[in-house]
Structure prediction request, 674 residues.
Amino acid sequence: MSILTWTYIMVGITFSLYLSIAWIARVKTTSGFYVAGGGVSPLANGMATAADWMSAASFISMAGLISFMGYTGSIYLLGWTGGYVLLALLLAPYLRKFGKFTVPDFVGDRYYSDIARFVALMCAIFVSFTYVAGQMRGVGIVFSRFLEVDVNTGVLIGMAIVFFYASLGGMKGITYTQVAQYLVLIVAYLVPAIAISLKITGTFIPQLGFGSTIAEGANAGKYLLDVLNQLNTDLGFSAYTQAFGPGSKSMLDVFCITMALMVGTAGLPHVIVRFYTVPSVRAARLSAGYALLFIAILYTTAPAIASFARYNMINSISGVEYSKAPAWFKNWEKTGLIAWSDKNQDGIIEYFPGDPFTGKPTFTGEKGSYGQELLSNSPTDNKNELFIDRDIMVLANPEIANLPPWVIALVAAGGLAAALSTASGLLLVISSSISHDLYYRLINRNASEKQRLMVGRIMIGLAVCVAGYFGIHPPGFVAQVVAFAFGLAASSFFPIIVLGIFFKRANREGAICGMIAGISFTCYYIVNIKFLGGTPWLLGISAEGIGTVGMLINFIVTLLVSFMTAPPPADVQEMVENIRFPRGAGASIDH
Amino acid sequence: MKKDLKLYWKKNLSLMVVLLSIWAIVSYGFGILFVDQMNAIKIAGFPLGFWFAQQGSIYVFVVLIFIYYFIMKKVDEEFDVHE
Prediction:
């Protein structure tokens, strides 16, 4: 059977699975809709959280990014896992004990203020929309590459599926679909990784494989990472394992980016809200452990794939005549993810640091003298002739390792699972923020259960449409706004939730000033660099890392203003006292 | 009773401080600030600093959360605040 047939079968099977789960898990109550009735087991919630967390970017792009960045790629590995320790120790158990539906709920009640609730609400919606636009695009891209349908049709199919199971089952439907999606995506990630590890190093565990020796070929017997360092330096790149080498980020920047990603993770509303779905405080702690365990399986495999892919790429392409290049090179050249501009007309693919030409490849449609696709881009002055999109490191992996067609189909289904699971989690946060925090809490306090459910479902529909619109017409700034999502989550939610739990004296005035100061500084810095072309004036910290500084500002301002103004009322202090002790969490879900 | 709860909270906080210190040492310490010094040590094919940054820290993170879960489970029962 062809790859395409296999892909249709694989995607068909997984999609019917998701839809059946959604039908079985459909709900009738608001607590079922927002937090799955608070009855999800820690193991299932762990898997759902992992699927929710790992997006199309983690699945498709991360290994490729690390492959090109070497050591510096650690910012993603550390940054996107370390936040779970903060969640498990500082946030999840207490928010579970508090036991409402959303993050703005906690902020509004703890700081006894509708202004604080509203600021939190706006941040939650903004962060979630930023994130979900990228996911819808991811769905479209996977569809177009593997199923040969138009990107826009792909986005529409994705929208329909997500709308169906999110509006029907709410959080409950989403949770159990995410469990299935986790299983699909992790199998799809591991199968090619194990095969490639076996092929290159003879070790079937990728995590050990990339610290092992190479099994065959000219470099047999040498350690893979040593060979990679050598290959990299021979071509003029920094050594693969070298930290802070020329051309890569400074130590301070690596530190700040890692911190901003960690703290941002712990402050992302769609991650936090997952811990409201488990039955008890103890279950919330355990669930965070399971979530990170399931995430770690993918996140420790990614750097192994990155180094295998780098080795394969340099070995099979660099310095090779185009006519002798492997078949996958030519297959992916058609998609524009790989391009070769034969600057010195010698028919050999030469790979060096720097961009081979300006912009993304645009093919003229004509073939060159070696059969290569000709480009209309203007070439740069350097010696590099090779354009490689980082996504190819995961997408082309199965072909590079000569795996059977069903594995390639599996990778497609895995990419879709990663994108859909994250999109649905985010859409639910948007829907519950608007229907619960805005409509019920701030507009109509007398709304009946039925009305609130109806508004929730309508909001999911609206959110899907907006997300789909951005998926079809991606704003040019999608890549830039990712820095925004983490920067904002780090500089808004994290400090005031932590202080809200651990510092009784933190009050309304402090929280509002702190949030506004943190967000304004972070927004100003990011907009200045990403949109207005400013320089990173603060010690060279990049836009991705500035959330760390924003978070510190938020902490300091909240503390200072809290000390200068009146302490919170007695009932709020009592509430803080109360959330510190686990007993009684089971009952607190039914508000 | 009130005093008991204070002690419970203190125990929780000191456990958190210990675990978060380990969290910071493996990731920010071994993986970033002292990565060059750590890289001088090699275990199999891995320079140690690089290994902590791309593998080791993540394993430690998982273990830390489970340690917190198991110890707090005991402490909750000891102070009779469990659900």
In short: Chain B touches chain A through 43 residues (CB under 8 Å). The two ends of chain B are 17 Å apart (CA to CA). Chain B has a mean pLDDT of 91.
